[in-house]
Write the structure tokens for this entry.
Amino acid sequence: MTTFTLVSMAVALLGAMLAVGLSNILYAIFGLGLSLLGVAGVFFALGSPFVAAMQLLIYVGGITVAMVFAVMLSLALGAKPTARPNPWRRLGALIPVGIFAGAVGMGLRSEGLDATVLDVSTAIPIAEMGMALLQEFNLVFETLSVVLLLAIVGAVTIAQRPPEEEA
Amino acid sequence: MNLEVLVMFSLLLFSIGLYGVVIRRNLIAVLIGVELMLNAASINFMAFGALHASDPTMGPIFVLFIIGLAAAEVAIALSIVLSVYRQRRAIRVEQLTELKG
């Protein structure tokens, strides 16, 4: 476990907490970007620089920016929250999530994963991944293309103004 | 690299995302929580792909698939956010009662 991995994990967790905790939605999106950056670092440490680069390009560069645009189009940024949230709500959400995390964590600990050490010294060659995408996993590749095309068409259709508004 | 640390990290990230989905009332904030949960799942796929898969490219390709699907999901969700905002000038979850859910 190198220092780089640990720092990446810390950045990812810190960013996630900021993304969930900050009430200003724009700052929350920046926290999400920080968290995704940390996850990209973990991917890099796991021996897959290509996936780390894709994470940076698509998530940090694309999805975060798209969210910022959605906020700019839909919210008055300076607007204060209208009502003070009930303080018991945080506790009410924390209890079930804590039970879930504790139960799953104890189950995982009893699996004895501690003894397993991953060998990530050699990076997966990008050429090999490209060949796999066009041969063995060609169906995955094509399915993803169709899904993305449908998502674009669907997004345009949903976000379109109704015809009578256009006039 | 120790597998247990990775799995615990992924569990923590997933739990934070789940907490965000439960507690936030803004549609975009709920979407942020979902993204965190998807990332936690990706880390698990990478870790166990490096451990078990006969083909070392299997884990990264699955993660690429998840990233692509997340991009599609965000595009659809944000267009729904815009559409909802146009109709009711608000994107708080509890105001979306059209379907009487």
